Amino acid sequence: MSLAVLALILFVSIFLLVLYGYPVAFTLGGLSLLYALCFLDFNVLSLLPNRIMGVMDNSVLLAVPLFVFMGIMLEKSGLAERMLNSMASLFGRVRGGMAVSVVIVGALLAASTGIVGATVITMGLISLPPMLRKGYPPTVATGVIAASGTLGQIIPPSVVLVLLGSVLQVSVGGLFRAALYPSLLLVAAYIVYLLGLGVLRPRSFPRTESGPAWDRALVIKVLQSLFLPLLLIVAVLGSILVGLASPTEAAGVGAAGAVLLTWSQGRLDWPVTRAVCRDTSHLTSMVFMILLGATTFSLVFRELGGDRFLVSLIERSDLPEYQFLALVMVVVFVAGFFIDFIEIVFIIVPVVTPVFVAYGTDLIWLGILLGINLQTSFLSPPFGFALFYLKGVAPPEVTTGHLYRGIVPFLIIQIILLAVVVFFPEWLGVR
């Protein structure tokens, strides 16, 4: 049996074990080491410490714990509830206005945190009960919240994009810039869809406020609730986009800003600080343990010749770039039903990247497509992670069927966006 075939068996074995529920980090590292000891020269493993040191020296990856800390700290600050209340007052006189408010607040949280699970849970806790009380059908309410909560997958500063930038070896700042227009288009599409439904189905989209549409007090209330989050977004994202700071430097500013913002809301105390540090340590440790396992897997897979075998296989098959891209997108989409985005980024993406390099594919464009695809798979029934997050905080009267039916229109919107980015990337400044 050739080494290249062994490389493919290694990949399939790891994928199946992860699906079966084995810990991802130890599956990646342990099985790769076993294959290396059995089928490769022992000297190959002497390269591993240098690879691990390369991961430890990668300053871009420092942005991960800093962005995670920023997101969790902001989730504790109570700003989301303030923003939702003020935005609901602003748009409450429009049919579907509360749903539009959820989308806008979800986008602002995504641009502030970049953490999907925390955003979905927070939005579910603060917006689902009021929407149900105001008369929104459970399908509409759950669909809006789940879709808005996953915007953090693609709206910068997204942890997903940081990890994709590291794996694809492209500029994280470039990924952030390329993701800006598609993410804004997605938010706009959600809002247009909801406002359109408010016109077509007025009973399902009630007005939640009455009285004059605008007054001085309302404008001041909205500006006060948005000022600090927007200031933080401009400081973090703006500094990256205009080239004033690297993603890691901006993440440090964001983490410090999140602490100050939480303090300004009177929410910063020792229990909150301890909980934020604990949750940040747990999530960051998981990511970096998986990254170390993925580094071992990448080394062994390439030493077995798996990357060269895939490239030669595609070359012999004369498969066009777009057909291979479609195949990868389907695989990533289906894999997203069963495993988290971190596993997809560190298991599937490194395997297919050499093939795209051989095609001459723009890897920034590929990273944006993968980010949108991962966001879509997070929403897809029956195993979308966002649906499980939301179901965990939903009232008993909200069924799984409500979640599945409610998310379908938003899935269609995201698939349309994915197609737009595939066929018209120049329009969005992606390629």
TrEMBL record:
Membrane topology: Multi-pass membrane protein
Record has Cell division as a keyword: no
GO MF term list: transmembrane transporter activity
One GO cellular component term noted in the UniProt record for this chain: plasma membrane
UniProt KW keywords: Cell inner membrane, Cell membrane, Membrane, Transmembrane, Transmembrane helix
Membrane-spanning segments: 60-79, 99-128, 140-168, 180-200, 226-245, 283-301, 322-352, 364-390, 402-424
Location relative to the cell: Cell inner membrane
Pfam families, per the entry: DctM (PF06808)
Residue ranges occupied by any TRAP C4-dicarboxylate transport system permease DctM subunit domain in the UniProt entry: 11-427
Keyword Cell inner membrane appears in the UniProt entry: yes
Main location: membrane
PANTHER family: SIALIC ACID TRAP TRANSPORTER PERMEASE PROTEIN SIAT-RELATED (PTHR33362), SLL1103 PROTEIN (PTHR33362:SF7)
The protein's name in its UniProt record: C4-dicarboxylate ABC transporter
Record lineage: Bacteria, Pseudomonadati, Bacteroidota, Saprospiria, Saprospirales
